[in-house]
Structure formats: C-alpha cells, structure tokens
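This week, look over our next protein:
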Amino acid sequence: MAQILAPSMQWQMRMPKYSNIASPMTTKMWSSLLMKQNKKGTNRSSAKFRVLALKSEDSTVNRLEDLLNLDITPYTDKIIAEYICQNNTISCWNRIGGTGIDMRSKSKTISKPVEHPSELPKWNYDGSSTGQAPGEDSEVILYPQAIFKDPFRGGNNILVICDTYTPAGEPIPTNKRHRAAEIFSNSKVSAEVPWFGIEQEYTLLQQNVKWPLGWPVGAYPGPQGPYYCGAGADKSFGRDIADAHYKACLYAGINISGTNGEVMPGQWEYQVGPSVGIDAGDHIWCSRYLLERITEQAGVVLSLDPKPIEGDWNGAGCHTNYSTKSMREEGGYETIKKAILNLSLRHKEHISAYGEGNERRLTGKHETASIDSFSWGVANRGCSIRVGRETEKQGKGYLEDRRPASNMDPYVVTSLLAETTILWEPTLEAEALAAQKLALNV
C-alpha cells in the first residue's frame, strides 16, 4: 500500500459557482478554489479534502454538502473503493480540448479496510461501452494492482489502480501494465533497481471556449518569458488547481516531489519520483486521475495534448529521468553512455511509443530535439537525451529522456527504457557505427 503523507490540518475544496458568462475565469471561480483551513470544531488526527456542493441560485444551503462530507467511519467498517483503469482505445488527442487521456472508474463497497491489492476482489465492467470488447462478449475483468488513499472521500476509502483482462485471464490489448510488469520482474532488470523521475506537463483550458486558462478569449497573451515559475495575477494562471493537486497527491501517498508553472501561460508541471520499476506508472496514472477529478470540480478542462497551441509556444512533454544501480555507482558514467548508445539505435521504436501527436512538439525548437534524429548532450535541453552537469562531474548519476510527450503511457515508456538499456543487446557492427555517430554529435 502506498505510503501516506497527509496534511496535518483539515482543508476544504469548494466547487465553483457557475454564472452565465462563457468563460469560467472569474473572481468567484478563483476564490472558490482556495484551500481554506477549517478552524471550527476540535482537532482531528487525520486530514481530508472536503468537497462542497454548489449552492442554489437563491443562496439556500444545498443539503448535498452534508452528505458529500459525511464521515461514515464511526458507523460502519465498510469502505468505498474506487476502481480506476485506463482505456487507450478512444482517441481524444484533438489539439484544443480533450484530455489526452481516457480514464474510467467505478465505485465498490468493501466490507472492511484493506492494506494490499490482493485483499480486494476482481471486478468487471462493460467493455462494449468503452470500445474494448464486443457486445456479445462484453465483460472486461479488473485486476486490482495498487492502492492509494482517497483524498475526495477521506477516511479509510481508497483509490485502486487496476489493469484489464478477458474472462479467460488474457490481458486485453490496451493493458500496457501487464507487459511492463513482465519486464520489471525480469531478474536482470530488478537487480539494477531502475529509478524513474517523471515530469508531467499539462495545460489548463477554459471550459466553454477550450482556450488556455488566463488567455484572452480569441486572442493571445504577451510572449513567453515571464510565465515560467512566475508569480502574479498577470503571469500565473491556475495555481490553486496545481496546489490542490499537490496536496491531494501527498494525501493519497503518491510520490510527488514538486510542481511549478511552465513556460507557456496556463501550463503547469509536477514531478513524480524517484519511483522504482512498475511503481512509476502506477503513481503517474493515479496522479492523473486526481488531476482529472480536481479540474472537474473547478470547471476547468485538463489537456495533455503535446502541442495545444501552434506557433511560438512551448509544447507539453513528460520528460523521464532514469537511472540504474550501475549508473548510480562509481564509474556509472560509462554505463550511461552505453545506455545512450542503445537508445540511439532504437530511436524509432521509442518515438513510436512515446505519445500521440508528438511530431507537432518535437520540432527542434522550444527546448526539443527533432523527432527525426537522435542527439544527446550535457545540460542541453535541445537534445533527445540530456545528461546533467553534476552527473558528468561526479562520473555517475542519471539521464533525462526528453522525447516523451505529455500524453505518453508511463507503463510503456518506463519499461521500454529498461528493456533497451538493460536487456537489449545490439550487434557489434551497429554498436560501432552508432558510437561513431554519437562521437560526431557530441
């Protein structure tokens, strides 16, 4: 079960009060997103994020609020488990609008609190409604794989990351976790204890016009420059959402390590890791689910499109920092360079698995390398693979793969990195040729 890092105080998340204005970017919306300390009542040992229902137009109290935040712990041992799975069959990578991910979930009552996925029953859903199974044989089976605390319901309630199988026990084609788990359970891979630090970038869109948050409707803000890690009403748009997500991840037990505003206004990033093996994918998928739910409550659209706005604007990536035990030990720099050589030889295989629409982002501009060529460099953010100055100085450390798009599947990317750098062996001829090309590149 994921470790819990819970806030020490009880916090509230208010849902926005909608108006007839097309854009949700109003003062009321931002004030409704503020996370306020609840100073009333006695102190409690645990923390939770409260969900407040909308008030009716005549300002009378909506009684749903009391039920949404009802603490059932004193009255029953039963808990609610939210079974979550990904569905990669539906394409929603349109340039403006659409999340770039398709996650589904359904709730199940469990008789008592649990500590491990093995204590949870398998479940099923209608695969014909998600494009994953035919109507005449529509059951898709959910296998619980990872548990996180539920920051929306609080208490002992949980979020459950699942993967998907046929009734016969075969992984369905969209189940990418199964193959990743096979790679990470390989004895050669597990002995290397692969670490991943994933930088998830995302864009917040105004709900009704599908235009970035903070941008004038139908127009553009000032050029890029002051927005990255910026502060101020004219530079930072969506901070309350990013902060709410940050705390929700800590509460859930996700290994989130930081967050910041990005280069394009209305765009943010958070980092998850270091995580070992399959955990990296589980934590990223759960963090994406939390972000979907928080933006849902805020009345804002989440987009993981790798290039939401054409032109002189940064795209959105999912840079993946990676190291093995051999890379982190003395002499690890040579292992890193050998890994880079292998990655250069499988550049096309990696690009094809690194997200949809990535060709619009990897242009050689805006801190990216060209999608058609492989390159690496020290402290160079215009390369396919970046190695940090400290890694070069210490002679050990990690590499950063800057090619993955924001909508990449973390199970696919992390397992492919491990496979290419640990399990895959090129021919001597290919290795020698690649070494010559990389030498010229550097």
The chain has twelve helices and 16 strands. Residues 187-441 form a domain with the Creatine Kinase; Chain A, domain 2 fold (CATH 3.30.590.10).
